[in-house]
Amino acid sequence: MTRFFFSVIGLLFFAHLSWSQGYEIKIQISGYEEDELYLAYYYGDKQYIKDTVTIAAEGEKGHFVFAGDEPLAGGVYLAVMKPNNDFIQFVVDENDQHFELKTAKDNPNDHMKVTGSKDNALFFQYLQYLEKKRPVAENLKTQLEAAKDDQKKTAKLQQQLDSLNKEVSDYQKQVVADNQGTMTAAIIRANLPIDMPEFKGEGDDLKVQQWRYTQHHYFDNLDLGDPRMLRTPFLFQRLEHYVNKMVVQHPDTIALAIDDVLKPMQKSEEMFRYYLIHYLNSFARSKLVGMDAVYVHLVDQYYAKGLASWTDPDQLKKIIDNANTLRPLLIGKIAPDIRLQKRDGTPISLHEVDSEYTVLYFWRYDCGHCKKSTPFMKDFYEKYKDKGVKIIAVCTKYQDEIPGCWEYIDENGIQDWLHTVDPTGRSRYAQIYDIQSTPQIYILDRNKEILTKRIAAEQIEEVMDKIIEMKQREKESGN
Known about the structure:
Strand content: 15-25%
Largest sheet: 5 strands, mixed
Structural class: alpha/beta
């Protein structure tokens, strides 16, 4: 029995009502002794409660009526049973909202009888078909495993399994072809594998060709502009797999992949809104280095262009301002120049520092993480100072707290770094570099281009080795 876990966003209690519009779904479950039944739905990666009803007016056990004066949004819904949250899935479409489902608590799909909904009749017919074929397939797979040392028998069993798979695939395609526009056909089609052509080649070359084809045709059977897909159990996972697994995990590539997802979704405002907000929040929270570039891309392409019309003006300004702060700090950008002050009071700017690599390190002496980072940074400098690395350390204290910076430096024996402060905050380094916490580390090249940033001190040696190795390869290749 399948189990359901949900979040309650609002419970609406209905008695037995009759509606000429809106929705009315009668559900009869023999063997179900509880007095309540929940109506729930999928939404993105979660499930929510829509209605809760008690036993219908006639007082018969297992008889329930969900009703409302506003139509339900199309999608996959669930009748959720107490106490273990076992559930029965069914479909709702725009023009199919008055129907009756009769079944049993145990094996509800097998016992289902549908009245008043051709879509649900088709849906359960399809589920029943799969239930009949599943044990046959599992039996063949078990026999295959047992006969793996018998080549002749294995070939025969594999042929039978291939034949069964083709039979199921042909059935699925026929259901889709014969029932265009129904929710059931849309669900089946969305879960069909893509038609992979024959490619020439072998080994890794063949795998690369198949991989690229899969990337380009990943959504062939899934209509991302169909608003009903938002309320299904599979769309969110499919999209996450595409963005996180099917494309190279580089900010530019991910941004383009998200554009490919969002473009067809603009036909459905609710779908577009849900996923644009989802991606914006995901990359705003991302701890992966460089992924703030995806956040900036989303703001520039959608929010700043007025495509997120639902956003409150004050919130929109904050989002755009945040992107404007992050943009100059993206990997590949020239680090903003800041003018600071050395211990003897002489001024120095970041761009004046002549070194093959510059580590820009923001810290404070009363910061616990900074104290833990100091030994790593000290060891790092000793190992890499002869490889063209300089550390510009900015103590983020002001005015009368600055003497504590020099005391900490002397106590920890890190005088060899280039230490700076800004007593009055005139350089605005905290705003320019978005210093909301310390420590913060940026690694810059000779031209002060940002190579990486916001890494932990414990990682800096490993990261620096990779940077030097990469630069050496570029030099050898003439780039």
